[in-house]
Design a protein that fits this description.
This is DUF6589 domain-containing protein. The protein contains 30 helices and 7 strands. By secondary structure, it is α/β, with parallel strands linked by helices. It binds a DNA duplex through helix 6 and helix 7.
DNA sequence: TTTATAGCGCAAATTTGTCG
DNA sequence: CGACAAATTTGCGCTATAAA
């Protein structure tokens, strides 16, 4: 039998996976065993059918099994299949069974292969860490330890661990801690104001997002073009990421964070203390809890002798996915209203039957995201419809060419933006709420769109406004974190460092134009993949197994999944109904808006209906006034100039403004939402 | 007691290296 | 090119162990 489907373990690497193809197997079979190939083709052909899909997949599979029976090294398909099964969380039993059928290599072989890959990756990561600038991101994972026999005192519990990734980024310019501390004193409330250029930018952003909605949802508008408000787009390149071994360290304590950092630096990356001299700075990214622990840890270790042990080098940065989730939560909370208020989120969600997933203690991010986007679309359409009617411009046919039409739409939308959105001056409460909702949603849309396209300039502008909004709600912890961020942008970091830090917030896994995602979301995806493998094992699987075989190969696993499912034509799990239901849902929301004359020009006829509607908080105003109240800012500045012997405690004035339960919920937020997807 | 599984030792299979 | 030895790899089967 042919010997050209041979694969050696030593020359198998992550890149082998993307090359795997059934066509290649067919070619090999045809050239090396033409007779068998012909026979197989003949046998698999369905009588009188031109559909050759079954033959296409069966011939290489059977051929590979035949080759495997002759030599256990002829395992081109079996090795990839084994890896696929492992990554999909198959148990040893499943793999043994399929090994018996000749479809995959044996379980120990997969184990050995993964150990080889891990060993190789470890060496590589040590090398790269010394050459290139990098940043670190880590997050907590909870493994659910299942116990099948439920009884009193034998409940399921959790195993805690930490996963980390090293990401190649840009160099930060060196800086000293004293400089940084001094710079905090220069923070003042005007740092949160917008200058003229920023106001103008926001106008263009608003126009962009409104026209995008019109293009997507109105017939005849798809040719309409509008300039993308581009500021500083990162080149669309695949980000180099190196998953690190997972650690059985509970990251939710200060001690745990210290151990995580030490393990990564010393054991995994093999760096000496001297590497951190000369003001070296490294971004350490994570969720809110992680970042705050890190700040606490830095305060705690002020007295240590070396920069390395003082953690001077660690620059904590909160990441965008968690910020985005919080923004969604704030908007939902602010415009929720009640079921009796027409046009409130509560009422709309009830109508669409989506209440359960959104208005709970632990809302699902994707449910919130979907609702907000649909309501946004409907509100934009309503606004357009109303202002077009007022100007008697419905008739689109009068425009001969697309350019003229496009220009006209751009002009009109800009008019709407200037009149309605940036300067809300409306008497009807529900219309005012809707306008405020639009304004805040534009920020949300802008954040997610800037992330997707990798524009760090737009992200910077958005985060600046978010810093204000977060001060309005009961989310002081995030608000303070963004204050840190803004302060560093304004007074601490130079241009090089600013760009490096902002770039570190995004990862591009595909290398495509729209392939960017927040760094923390990337880490959450990793955790999900690791769990996937883990849950195929029994509950008592030792953590070492993950460290030695799984966590460093997560990206390989993801690649295998993608490649195998493509090659074997597994149906993709994109939800096909989404588009249809979105359309009807948006239509339903629009109906409610029309019925209640929300955003309508003449407000008198419906005044009665609007009476019961409570006014939503103007988040931006509330945030600004919170900042203008000097107490908050001074407390913040003092704490960070003079240091604090306690750790992690924010200035005391937060206590009265937020009840402790709310705060505790925010803490949980990332746990709950990360499970979502 | 039965069952599942990770890990390990070991024999068999297979490849690689060497020599004439 | 073939024979033969050495080295490497594979996969079976056993054991310890935790869970059912």
């Amino acid at each position: 039998m042919d010997k050209h489907l041979h694969v050696e373990r030593s020359d198998f690497s992550a890149s082998s996976i993307s090359k795997f193809s059934v066509v290649h197997i067919n070619q090999r079979l045809e050239s090396k065993a033409p007779l068998i190939f012909k026979i197989l083709q003949g046998l698999t052909k369905k009588k009188g059918s031109t559909d050759n899909r079954q033959r296409f997949l069966a011939v290489p599979t059977i051929g590979s099994i035949l080759a495997f029976t002759q030599s256990n090294r002829a395992r081109y398909l079996q090795l990839t299949m084994g890896l696929y099964l492992y990554s999909a969380g198959c148990t040893r039993k499943v793999i043994d069974t399929l090994h018996g059928a000749g479809l995959c290599v044996s379980f120990p072989t997969i184990n050995r292969l993964l150990e080889n890959l891990t060993e190789h990756a470890l060496k590589n990561v040590k090398l790269v860490a010394k050459q290139d600038p990098w940043l670190l991101v880590y997050d907590n994972v909870n493994f659910f330890k299942r116990k099948y026999d439920q009884r009193i005192g034998n409940a399921d519990d959790f195993e805690n661990g930490t996963t980390a990734t090293m990401i190649i980024g840009k160099n930060l310019s060196p800086g000293s801690v004293h400089q940084i501390r001094d710079s905090y004193s220069r923070l003042c409330s005007t740092d949160f104001m917008m200058d003229e250029a920023e106001v103008d930018h926001l106008r263009h952003v608003s126009r962009f997002h409104i026209i995008e909605e019109l293009k997507k949802n109105l017939e005849g508008y798809s040719h309409c073009s509008t300039p993308t408000p581009e500021l500083h787009r990162l080149p669309a390149e695949r980000t180099k990421t190196f998953p690190l071994p997972s650690m059985k360290i509970d990251e939710s304590s200060l001690e745990g964070n210290k151990m995580v950092l030490e393990t990564v630096i010393q054991e995994v990356l093999g760096l000496e203390e001297g590497w951190f001299n000369a003001g070296k700075l490294v971004v350490v990214a994570g969720d809110l809890a992680t970042v705050r622990k890190l700040r606490g840890l830095k305060d705690l270790r002020l007295d240590e002798h070396s920069p390395y042990h003082r953690l001077d080098w660690a620059t904590p940065v909160t990441q965008l996915f968690h910020i985005q989730m919080l923004l969604a939560k704030i908007i939902v909370h602010n415009y929720r209203g009640s079921a009796s208020e027409q046009g409130s989120l509560e009422q709309l969600a009830t109508m669409l039957g989506r209440r359960k997933r959104i208005f709970t203690d632990n809302p699902e991010f994707h449910a919130m995201d979907e609702l907000l986007r649909h309501v946004f679309t409907a509100t934009v359409l309503r606004l357009w419809e109303v202002s077009m009617e007022a100007k008697e411009m419905q008739n689109l046919d009068i425009y001969s060419d697309n350019v003229a039409f496009s220009n006209h739409v751009n002009e009109k939308v800009m008019e709407i933006v200037d009149q309605n959105i940036n300067v809300p001056n409306i008497e009807s409460t529900s219309s005012r709420n809707a306008t405020l909702f639009l304004r805040d949603m534009i920020l949300y849309m802008e954040l997610s769109s800037a992330i997707k396209i990798g524009d760090i300039g737009r992200i910077e502008k958005t985060v600046k406004r978010l810093a204000v909004i977060f001060h309005a709600g009961s989310t002081p912890l995030y608000a303070y974190e963004l204050m840190h961020f803004l302060c560093c942008i304004k007074h601490v970091w130079d241009e090089q460092t600013k760009v490096a830090v902002l770039s570190s917030m995004l990862v591009n896994t595909s290398g495509g134009q729209y392939g960017w995602k927040p760094t923390d979301l990337y880490q959450e995806h990793h955790n999900r993949s690791i769990k996937h493998v883990y849950y195929g094992r029994r509950g008592d699987t030792p953590f070492d197994m993950l460290r030695e075989r799984v966590s460093m190969n997560i990206e390989t696993f993801d690649g295998v999944k993608e490649q195998m499912e493509k090659q074997f034509q597994a149906p993709s799990n994109k939800r096909k109904h989404a588009a249809v239901s979105a359309e009807t849902d948006i239509h339903d929301i629009l109906g409610i808006l029309r019925e209640n004359n929300i955003l309508g020009r003449d407000f008198n006829p419906c005044a009665q209906k609007n009476e019961g509607v409570a006014a939503a908080k103007d988040l931006f105003l509330a945030g600004t006034s919170a900042l203008q109240d000097k107490k908050r800012m001074r407390a913040f500045i003092n704490k960070h100039i003079y240091g604090n012997q306690g750790f992690g405690d924010e200035p005391e004035d937060t206590a009265q403004e937020s009840n402790p339960i709310e705060t505790a919920r925010d803490w949980q937020l990332e746990e709950d939402l990360s499970e979502g997807k």
